[in-house]
Amino acid sequence: NNLVILISGTGSNMAAIVRAAERERWAERLGARVAAVISNRPGAKGLDFARERGMATAVVDHKAFDGREAFDAALMRAIDVHQPALVVLAGFMRILTPGFVAHYAGRLVNIHPSLLPAFPGLHTHQRALDEGCKLAGATVHRVTAELDHGEILAQAAVPVLPGDTADTLAARVLTQEHLIYPQAVAYLLSKK
Ligand code: GRF
């Protein structure tokens, strides 16, 4: 069971999954391994983490393609080399075409930094603060053609504290993401 993880930046969620796979011995227990880390941004810091661990990496730079379909087709080619049982979006900041989503139907997951269905889309923490929410959090969900609306697989909630900024709240939520994402991925792999 190969996993391919897609990132766009820091890749802290990817790193949490890679560490969990090693610590919990997914290869032996689940017959699963993180086969590759792929980014749409050449400078994504997460690529350094993957390279340092000798992992396969690839860059499919969305700026190098004329249109969303052309980019997604190139991304699919880079992913399918690894014949993944699961494609994990981890801080991947691209909206994927329906063709891409259909190609990976049933094996595409994402983590979103809000308690969906609240706050789909961007700037979730600032929006939660602006609304005076007392709880915030993250959601692991299956990816469908409708942005941030697939079946919810896992969630974690954190308190919004007095004086919180989007950054302090984001950091508190991120800590929980690093717990629930590896757990949700391991659960999905155990069902494969
Ligand atoms: C963070 O905002 C996180 O909440 C969301 O994607 C962004 C980057 O995450 N899931 P990562 O550190 O690149 O995994």
Automatic annotation (TrEMBL):
UniProt cross-references to NCBIfam families, sorted A to Z: PurN
CDD domains noted in UniProt: FMT_core_GART (cd08645)
Family (UniProt): Belongs to the GART family.
GO BP terms, alphabetized: 'de novo' IMP biosynthetic process
Gene encoding the protein: purN
Keywords on record: Purine biosynthesis, Transferase
UniProt EC number: 2.1.2.2
Transmembrane region(s): none
Natural source organism: Ottowia testudinis
Keyword flag Transferase: yes
Purpose of the protein: Catalyzes the transfer of a formyl group from 10-formyltetrahydrofolate to 5-phospho-ribosyl-glycinamide (GAR), producing 5-phospho-ribosyl-N-formylglycinamide (FGAR) and tetrahydrofolate.
Pathway: Purine metabolism; IMP biosynthesis via de novo pathway; N(2)-formyl-N(1)-(5-phospho-D-ribosyl)glycinamide from N(1)-(5-phospho-D-ribosyl)glycinamide (10-formyl THF route): step 1/1
The reaction(s) this protein catalyses: N(1)-(5-phospho-beta-D-ribosyl)glycinamide + (6R)-10-formyltetrahydrofolate = N(2)-formyl-N(1)-(5-phospho-beta-D-ribosyl)glycinamide + (6S)-5,6,7,8-tetrahydrofolate + H(+)
Active-site residues (renumbered): H112
Domain Formyl transferase N-terminal as annotated: residue spans: 2-185
Annotated positions binding N(1)-(5-phospho-beta-D-ribosyl)glycinamide: G11, S12, N13
Molecular functions (GO terms): phosphoribosylglycinamide formyltransferase activity
Designated name of the protein: Phosphoribosylglycinamide formyltransferase
Lineage: Bacteria, Pseudomonadati, Pseudomonadota, Betaproteobacteria, Burkholderiales
One GO CC term on file: cytosol
Site (Raises pKa of active site His): D148
Amino-acid positions noted as binding (6R)-10-formyltetrahydrofolate in the UniProt annotation, renumbered to this chain: R68, M93, R94, I95, L96, N110
